[in-house]
Amino acid sequence: MLVCYSSSSEEESEDAVPTDENNSFSRKCQEEEDGNNGGPARKKHKIEQQTPKSRLPLPGCLLAMFPDEEDAETEDSSLHGGRIRSFKHERGNWASYVYLPYHPEEEFMELLEDLLSFASAHGAVLTLQEEFHLSLSQTVVLRHHWIQPFTQSLKAGLMHCKRFLTFLGMEVCAGHVQIMDLVHEVDKTMTEFHLDTFYKDPSFHVSLAWCAGDLTGQMKEGCIQGMQSLVDNHEEGPFVLQLDCEELRFRTGNKTFRFPLKP
């Protein structure tokens, strides 16, 4: 079955100032007697010499965590192929999801080339995914300080899960029970952090390509049927698409955590 988708704080330091026992930089007010007119003692204030305090520079890693302004590039859809965020970018919020990675074989890539060429001929220009995966969660917003406890919770829940092999027809056609076991463990962690769990009746699939804008009209005019025929002919051949589920991954922002499954 073919499934297509469109898509500082600053710290001040106290400077060490060299001192001389007979000549200090800061003296208290001293009393001197005026021997010329025999007048009363008067106070002569010595000027207190001060050295300006310098500030230690912040490490670059901290400056990167707290930029002065929002990076305009994060909201510029033209820098992402026309794609628009499903939720607004906010400092400290990390888009996060859990998935099984799929490493395509040569035959898989050949099929994709045929599918994209067929769609292009029908006026639907699709862009190949940069990587392929099978989602085990929705994309959720995770606060930065939740990342460590979230990964620890995932790791604990997946301790007993074993690796397995599943078969793909763009949509999973075997291994559904094992994948649901993984989703169940992921949902436990999502619930613990009051985040959305996965869909009630999920259709597990691998997304192949995406497009900017609405190409529903072009896809309906014979394009979907023709692409489905290409997939059907491929599935009837000797090559079978397989996904070796040996590790689960959790991506949050630009960080990726890996959780190997038991042999």
Mean pLDDT, to the nearest integer, reads 76
Anisotropy-based shape: globular
Distance between the termini: 30 Å
Strand content: 15-25%
What keyword list fits this structure?
263 residues, 11 strands, disordered N terminus, alpha+beta, five-stranded antiparallel β-sheet, two-stranded antiparallel ribbon
Give your account of this protein's structure.
The protein has 263 residues and is an alpha+beta fold. It is built from 6 helices and 11 strands. Strands 3, 5, 6, 10 and 11 form a 5-stranded antiparallel β-sheet that branches. A two-stranded antiparallel sheet has the order 1-2. A two-stranded antiparallel ribbon has the order 4-8. Helix 2 (106-121) runs antiparallel to helix 6 (223-235) and helix 3 (147-157) packs antiparallel against helix 4. It comes from Pogonophryne albipinna. Its EC number is 3.1.4.-. The active site is at 133 (proton donor/acceptor), 205 (proton donor/acceptor). It is found in: Nucleus.
How would you briefly describe this protein structure?
Its EC number is 3.1.4.-. It is built from six helices and eleven strands.
SSE blueprint and pairings:
Layout: E1 30-32, E2 42-44, H1 60-65, E3 93-102, H2 106-121, E4 127-128, E5 132-135, E6 140-143, H3 147-157, E7 164-168, H4 176-192, E8 209-210, H5 216-220, H6 223-235, E9 241-245, E10 247-252, E11 255-260
Antiparallel strand pairs: 1-2, 3-5, 3-6, 3-10, 4-8, 7-9, 10-11
